[in-house]
Amino acid sequence: MRSTKGMCGAQWLSACALAVGASLLSVSTASATVTRHSDSTITLSQAAIDGRTARDAYRAYVASIQNNEPAATASYATMRVKRIPAFARKYGLRCSACHTAWPELNSFGQQFRDNGYQLKNERDTPISQSNAYFPITIRVTPQFHMERATKQLVDATPGDGESGQTEKTLTSHGFDLSGMDLWTAGTLWKNVSFVALLSSDNFASFHFEAVNLRFDNLGDNPWLNLKVGKFELDNLISEKRFLFLSDNGGSYATYHFSAPGSSVDFGVGDNQLGAELSGHSLNSYTRYSAAVLSSNDGDPGSNNFSSYDANFNFSQAFDGGAMGVERIGAYAYVGQRPTSFQTSGGDAIAGSGTNRKTFYRAGFAGDFFLHKLEFLPFYLHGNDNAFLASGATPNEPLPDGARDASWNGGFLETHYYINQQLVLTQRVEAIRMSQQAFSSMPSTLGNVDAYSFGTRWYPFMYSRAGLAVHGEYSLMKTVSPGQTAEEGSTVNIWTSSLLFALDFDF
Amino acid sequence: MSRDARRIASLAGLGIVFSIISAAGVRAQGNNGLPREGQGQDNKIIKNVGRPAVGKVEYVRYCVGCHGDHGDGQGENTPWIEPKPRDFTLAVFKCRSTPSGTLPTDQDLMNTIRRGIVHSNMPEWRPLPDQMIADILSYIKTFSPRWKTEQPGTPVVVPAETPVTMESILAGRAMFQKFECWKCHGPEGRGNGPSASGMTDSKDQPIQPLDFTTSDRFKCGTTNADLYRIFMTGLDGTPMASFSDNIKGDAGWDLVHYLRTMQPMRTPEATIWKAWLATHAGELKPIGDQTGQ
Questions:
Q1: Which of B114, B149, B184 is the last residue of a domain?
Q2: Count of domains for chain A
Q3: Residues 93-122, chain A: which have Cβ within 8 Å of B?
Q4: Euclidean distance between the first and final Cα of chain B, in Å?
């Protein structure tokens, strides 16, 4: 996995090298990938084969777009989302009790989750349940999808690598499978809850997406809960429980964005390894969390960190009367990454990193209801220290002219709930670089615009299993390095996804 | 505006138009014969006006799995859960502030929804807005004609609590014996009295007496006043009858204080009780059948 990330970083470096000149090429081992040649492509299919996570696949996918590599051949590997009918079976509640439209949580579902997957009716422990009950859930999504990407460089004469290159729009389509989630979650005892989520790509290569243990209501106090393991950050708008599945729309670009050339591997939407202290009021209207996380972006087994990040979240909900429950919150993530290592034979020794430099992500989010209409606004400001933003080679001085990179991003997502079994969705998303790592880089390089809309129909709704008939169209524009090495050259790459899926969960 | 921006804007516009058309279609479907806000019966629920048509939507979302489409307690989960869900067509409710046999107040129903019922599948619906609960309650009231022909009872008056003393606890223990609470709840309050086995409710469904030793809450509340109120109102539809004819005035607090000693958490009553037991345990007659003694 680390080598994969390195490759993604190298691609970024290569992309930036086009814009900032040959000086940066010396710090990259990927000088062969300075143009949009397909021989350096990482496709999602390959990601699936070598066992990367959906997150890595996403990054490779975005990187391929930003490097203007053929993306239309990418196979579907969505960020998996979560919904747990095992809980519905345990407690006899319909999906709709906890979800606005599964997998998105409603206010009651949030309370249930905050309580450690407990209803607090003295029937939460396994000993209170029928022996036949076992808290396991699977989710998988057969589908048809079409992917399209503009301005892809292809050989002028197919099969003739010497014929020069020309731009073409590439389209592919066909039937496919998503990966699969294999969930088990629940309680070990009263106020001791757990999650173990094995998630696969569409080649059934599994990884630990989330594994954690949570001690709930410490001292019989809902304001004190301690979770240890790998878990989703306490984002007000969860990317793990949202209503989009396609290649383009199946993750928030803002949650995974890295500044062009940056070596920071962190994503707000990535599950992290660490410990989280959290608390909430009895109705979960007031919530907070503070987490200490290993600086490895949640990669278990990775020992090249030896440092820690911190994440803070706070949100407050209000009884909006007939409108619904309205929530607003703020968050901040402060991380660090080493820029110097002990070496052996010139190679960095894992875990020996020092001279750490910081990055941060901060912003606010909301969840507002207007009767059946739900608005989910999200804003993020990101900043990477110059060392990190410039992708400086470890143990080397800061490149001349390097500076912090910063950007602003956000989205507005809207759901219209026609009824509990039919929802319409749409999302507008934008990312704008406000400062590149080098002044000579095009100011718009890396900018993203995206729009998605779709619908989910749940043909039946009860407390044992779920099925959603999912339709979605998603369009994304990414400002990528230009075709030539001309300084300041950029090109707008449009990618789109059309998806029809049967999203089932048992 | 650039071509790209126009493209995005056009798609966004299409999505909004799609949403509006869909919304209009749903609006045109009407209320399925249920009165809208301000129409028909008085739907005032505490500070809000309940909207049965809206309440039906929320009832289907949150309640129907157990209480059933027709409010008769025959939801899809009913065969698998104990105790059985409430049958709203009978309008008989356990948790009330009103005398046995009368309808509860709206506040009683709201409290039950917010609080849930311990040792049952009824969870605490704390996050739901008051208006949403009012809507649900106004819809639940359409299941029984009692809500059109009867008024809720007058809430029983709970007197000021007497001090927690050893004398009060011992008096309560005597009442626990005298009124044969132990026959259902067990001599030690474990819900395992000789009558507990095979106990049924008014619909002939199995039901279990509360086990005080594992509960930091009661069926209908958490406070001493809640427990006192339960003695006076009984839990309609269950074998737990009202003791309002037998327990008068401050005597009810004695029983409250004794029952509090059985609970698993550290209560003032339990502290006094344990201290006293350390030196006086031998003075107590066992709770239970004393006819042979």
A1: B149
A2: 1
A3: 93-94, 96-97, 107-108, 110-112, 119-122
A4: 97
